[in-house]
Design brief:
single chain, 2 helices, 35% helix, alpha+beta, four-stranded antiparallel sheet
Length: 79
């Protein structure tokens, strides 16, 4: 599991990224905003970002959702 920190509105939040290799998915959780999502690990980078933005946009403005999605995908792809 990866644990990263993300900042928004002067708040620092933890982002938890768990990879389930057997089911080929990532579980992404941001407890500070009561948000979680399962994303298929078979998606390409652009599709993964789009999926994250769509779901984050329900709680955040578009700019913040896009910023979060970019950071999360970057963290998922790093070794």
């Amino acid at each position: 599991m990866k644990v990263k920190k993300i900042n928004f509105n002067d708040i620092q939040a933890n982002v938890y990224i768990y990879e389930n290799v057997v089911n080929q998915l990532f579980l992404i959780v941001i407890p500070e905003i009561n948000w979680s999502l399962e994303v298929e690990s078979t998606l390409n980078e652009d599709d993964m970002k789009e999926e994250l933005v769509i779901h984050l946009f329900t709680l955040l403005d578009e700019s913040t959702a896009t910023h979060f999605a970019d950071d999360i995908v970057k963290w998922i792809l790093e070794n």
